[in-house]
Design a protein that fits this description.
Order of helices and strands: HHEHEEHHEEEEEEHEHEHHHHEHHH
InterPro entries: Phage/GTA_portal
Largest sheet: 4 strands, antiparallel
Number of strands: 12
Radius of gyration: 36 Å
Number of domains: 3
Distance between the termini: 112 Å
Strand order of the largest sheet: 1-6-7-8
Protein name: HK97 family phage portal protein
Shape: flat
């Protein structure tokens, strides 16, 4: 039994005695993923891959907010979420899979693996749940999710131990709505266009004309004369391009004009897929500018992945008491990596004003950190606003002239 099955298995005893369920409001909330079929489209796969590999670069941080101040906690949970969530996946592969499922299915599930009461229920790992069906259940005091896996096995776990991410959360009370209805018509257009291109290429090998014989021939004779005509006149070696027939045969050419979609129409269809996922062609082919990347981050990556995952992970990982003490999981991405060289160089003004540490600035340029570079620095001609200005020294008395005589201001003796 693998680690994933062992993690699911720990819930078996806890559900047996309380599993008198009733469906929420008389409705049966069941999620059946459809979107895997759309992944066979090259346009969808390229779009999902672009978003998922950029979203998977977000970094998890365990922080604690106390009296308006933020403290970096770090520790085991941050290490799991940002380095290796489980024994089989590093953090990038883990988040890539989770976000790919979210984009294709509009739902993604992460199972939290906790130790027993002897270890204080500490978090030991996180596992993406690759199910073929999920069903929301309710007891008198707790919610459960029943997963049906690809191998046919079924597991029921407390919803409190499942990080649940959703897209298009509207019609269903518990699950995000799928992609099939809005996306399939566009994919059918793309498939039809691709088939049209293939058929247009193949049409060059189809019938080019009809050879009409004025007399009745036996099938073998008719086939022989047709083969002779093709060999002599319809092959690339016939450089002159002239064919000759006698009175017994007439060649009637046929014009094959396959209908093909033009480049602008194809671009318009593909743009419909990009718009559905909130990107454009420049994001897909990595030709975006600094402003275009920032727009992509703020409209897609931040709300769909960073903010939603931060809120859901905080609620599901920490107890209510831990949340009351300011514990949070936040996800952040180094957006400055995609800034222009000019913008990066201008950030040096943030370093000498303590807004950034030297190592944070070096990270923008993909440079290794320096020893002591994590300490903020400040220019000598700046100070904290609330600090009192340094006391001025009293002005020294004028030195009397030599000889003990005072000089007259008017120059008179």
């Amino acid at each position: 039994m693998g680690m994933f099955q062992k993690t699911f298995g720990r819930f078996a005893g806890a559900v047996v005695n309380t599993f008198r369920t009733r469906f929420l409001g008389g409705y049966t909330p069941v999620f059946t993923p459809f979107g895997d079929d759309t992944y066979e489209s090259d346009v969808v796969r390229a779009t999902v891959d672009t978003i998922a590999r950029n979203a998977a670069k977000i970094k998890a941080k365990h922080i604690r907010r106390v009296n308006g101040k933020v403290k970096q906690v770090g520790g085991n949970i941050e290490r799991l979420l940002s380095v290796r969530p489980n024994p089989k996946q590093n953090a990038y592969a883990f988040w890539y899979k989770v976000f790919t499922q979210l984009l294709l299915r509009s739902n993604a599930f992460i199972l939290i693996d906790r130790a027993g009461p002897m270890e204080g229920y500490r978090v030991r790992g996180f596992y993406p749940v690759d199910c073929v069906m999920a069903e929301m259940l309710e007891t008198e005091n707790e919610y459960f999710v029943r997963f049906r896996m690809r191998n046919g096995e079924t597991y029921t776990v407390p919803y409190a131990d499942v990080i649940h991410l959703r897209r298009f959360f509207n019609l269903d009370p518990d699950f995000g709505n799928g992609n099939e209805n809005p996306l399939l018509p566009t994919l059918e257009l793309i498939n039809a266009s691709n088939q049209g291109i293939i058929n247009a290429i193949k049409s060059s090998a189809f019938i080019r004309g009809i050879l009409k014989f004025s007399t009745n021939l036996r099938p073998t004779d008719r086939k022989k004369q047709t083969d002779d005509f093709i060999r002599d006149y319809l092959n690339p070696e016939n450089g002159g391009g002239i064919a000759a027939t006698d009175v017994n045969a007439e060649f009637v050419p046929m014009k094959a004009e396959p209908k093909m979609i033009d480049a602008k129409q194809m671009e318009l269809i593909e743009r419909k897929v990009y718009n559905y996922f909130g990107v454009n062609a420049k994001i897909i082919n990595s030709s975006y500018s600094e402003d275009e990347w920032n727009a992509f981050y703020e409209s897609v990556l931040e709300p769909t992945f960073a903010i939603q995952t931060s809120l859901e992970a905080t609620i599901k990982i920490f107890s209510e008491n831990e949340q009351n003490h300011g514990n949070e999981i936040v996800f952040e991405s180094n957006r400055l990596q995609y800034a222009s060289a000019k913008t990066k160089l201008e950030l040096r003004e943030m370093v000498d004003r303590s807004a950034m540490t030297p190592n944070e600035w070096r990270e923008v340029f993909n440079q290794a950190p320096l020893e002591g570079g994590d300490e903020p620095i400040r220019r000598l001609d700046t100070a904290v606003v609330n600090d009192a200005p340094p006391a001025k020294k009293p002005k020294a008395a004028p030195t009397p002239p030599k000889g003990g005589e005072e000089e007259d201001d008017d120059g008179d003796e």
